[in-house]
């Protein structure tokens, strides 16, 4: 009776965790064999018969009959005298099967048995969750905000599984409320201990790709392909698209009439400004398109040296330079990411210019790097922008910028 009652309590897990019958039987047998091994030293000579649907459990120990006084292993052998108490006809060399009651294992072993079963079922459940979400890495996914922390948002999906959206994977303008539905891509799934860790991302370039696939039918159908993506999440992105069908304008199809198709994607990304450009394998043409809205006069590509990125000198009219660089150097950074080239902006028709690095004796290196970070590599490029614009785009103090411009002016005046 105690066997049946225990198995009935174990079978509750089957309903709670939706474990199939075969798996539950395998876990139950593993748990019982572990308990028998602890109790008797070995489980090799035990037969375990389990029917979790009916709540049936039988454990039988098989031992060989030996001469009286010749028992060396009382787990695997039984004396003739003890065997004949079970059945008078037993003889030496025959096998005796006896049923083992759970109560014989002891109360402490039974409690350990139940705890071990819970642990095994949770481990099985976590492994299945890990495998399921591992296959979804890189896919678009939605979940509901369960808890907002200072460094992460905890989400629950429709299956009640937990996903984490770290602060580093959130768009700067993101703001979440409990119960709100959030979209992102499953960036990474790994097992930490026995528990799966599922990381959602809204900043990965792949998120933008998946949104295009969902919102633009031609992208979903494969008529338009996304060749390259560069993003500064929540601020600006550039995406290069192509089509093998000459009848399709890939840029027009992605943007839609008056931006109707891309509007939903922009809104999802916190009003991230998205430039869609036509992809081409011709580097010169692609670099020009990537620097849009600036109009490039000409360019000169330099071969890569060692592991460095290949470099290109881009020549523009002075009034186009600020467009190419963009606010805070965003446009030129994205163009560089998209094309794979280090882009140096040159002013067309300006011959007497000097690289900023030539002033390293008078201007500190970190100050020069501040200008270079926003695409200003030469003296003329710094002097062409007014003080207010430079203060806004860099992290430099007004006094520092004034001093730099004074040094640069003196160079040209001399």
From TrEMBL:
Q: Which SUPFAM superfamilies match?
A: Nucleic acid-binding proteins, Prokaryotic type KH domain (KH-domain type II), Transcription factor NusA, N-terminal domain
> Where, per UniProt, does this protein localize?
Cytoplasm
Q: Which keywords are on file for this protein?
A: Cytoplasm, RNA-binding, Transcription, Transcription antitermination, Transcription regulation, Transcription termination
K Homology domain location is 233-306, 308-413
Subunit structure comment from the entry: Monomer. Binds directly to the core enzyme of the DNA-dependent RNA polymerase and to nascent RNA.
What the protein does comes down to:
Participates in both transcription termination and antitermination.
Concerning its family, UniProt says: Belongs to the NusA family.
Q: Which NCBIfam families match?
A: NusA
Q: What is its main location?
A: cytoplasm
Protein name per the record? Transcription termination/antitermination protein NusA
């Amino acid at each position: 009776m105690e066997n049946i009652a225990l198995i009935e309590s174990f079978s509750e897990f089957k309903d709670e965790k939706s474990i199939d019958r075969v798996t539950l039987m395998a876990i139950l047998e593993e748990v019982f064999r572990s308990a028998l091994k602890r109790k008797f030293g070995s489980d090799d000579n035990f037969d375990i018969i389990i029917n979790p649907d009916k709540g049936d459990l039988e454990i039988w120990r098989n031992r060989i009959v030996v001469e009286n006084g010749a028992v060396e292993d009382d787990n695997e052998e039984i004396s003739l005298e003890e065997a004949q108490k079970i059945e008078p006809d037993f003889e030496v060399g025959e096998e005796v099967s006896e049923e083992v009651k759970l109560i014989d294992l002891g109360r402490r072993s039974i409690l350990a048995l139940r705890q071990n079963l819970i642990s095994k079922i949770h481990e099985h459940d976590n492994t299945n969750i890990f495998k399921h979400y591992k296959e979804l890495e890189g896919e678009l996914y939605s979940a509901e905000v369960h808890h907002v922390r200072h460094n992460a948002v905890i989400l629950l999906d429709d299956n009640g599984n937990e996903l984490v959206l770290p602060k580093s994977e959130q768009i700067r303008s993101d703001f979440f409320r409990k119960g709100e539905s959030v979209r992102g891509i499953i960036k990474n799934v790994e097992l930490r201990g026995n528990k799966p860790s599922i990381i959602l991302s809204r900043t990965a370039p792949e998120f933008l790709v998946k949104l295009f696939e969902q919102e633009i039918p031609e992208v979903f159908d494969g008529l338009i392909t996304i060749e390259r993506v560069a993003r500064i999440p929540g601020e600006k992105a550039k995406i290069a698209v192509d089509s093998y069908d000459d009848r399709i304008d890939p840029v027009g199809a992605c943007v839609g009439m008056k931006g109707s198709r891309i509007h939903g994607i922009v809104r999802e990304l916190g009003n991230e400004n998205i430039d869609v450009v036509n992809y081409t394998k011709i580097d010169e043409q692609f670099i020009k398109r990537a620097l849009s809205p600036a109009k490039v006069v000409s360019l000169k590509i330099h071969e890569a040296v060692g592991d460095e990125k290949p470099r290109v000198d881009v020549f523009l009219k002075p009034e186009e330079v600020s467009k190419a660089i963009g606010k805070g150097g965003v446009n030129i950074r994205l163009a560089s990411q998209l094309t794979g080239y280090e882009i140096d902006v040159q002013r067309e028709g300006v011959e007497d210019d000097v690289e900023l690095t030539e002033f390293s004796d008078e201007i500190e290196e970190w100050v020069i790097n501040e200008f270079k970070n926003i695409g200003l590599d030469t003296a003329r490029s710094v002097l062409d922008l007014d003080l207010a614009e430079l203060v806004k785009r860099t992290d430099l103090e007004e006094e520092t910028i004034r001093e730099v411009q004074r040094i640069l002016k003196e160079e040209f005046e001399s």
